[in-house]
Amino acid sequence: MGIVHPHLWFAADAEKAAAFYAEVIPNSSVSRVITSPEGVPDVEPGAAFIVDLVLDGMPVTAINAGPAFRLDEAFSFYLTCETQDEVDHYWDALVADGGEHSQCGWLTDRFGVSWQVVPKQLDDMMGRPDAAGVARATAAMLRMSKLDIAELERAYAGT
């Protein structure tokens, strides 16, 4: 494993978010919870402060540190799916209980973390040499919220 990994700032729900991600994303787990000592602004002593998790094999650190900073769409996790069933499964799980749909395969979960739920077929299409097909698939993607593999393939093919 490398020396670089994401660090996410939460106002108060880092431990809940980490447990949720470990439940939804395969090969994931919460590996450590460090509680807050006295004197940490916006965090009660003894409350979860730093939460380390493994997200599909990648180390991630989450911190509860109050409302000074907020997560936004400038950072997102890119989740590659093999099938439409996987796209549907992850999309539904991640937007459940207060998440928000966005466009082009993007969503924000209930904890404020942005995700791109992308079928591998779209990545494949974008790398093909047919510029017109790529343009049609891109135009179709721009009209979607959750990505639809069959519709993307039809658009790429021009049918």
TrEMBL record:
It holds the Pfam family 3-dmu-9_3-mt. Residues 5-118 form the PhnB-like domain. PANTHER family: PHNB-LIKE DOMAIN-CONTAINING PROTEIN, PROTEIN YJDN-RELATED. This is VOC family protein. It comes from Cellulomonas fimi.
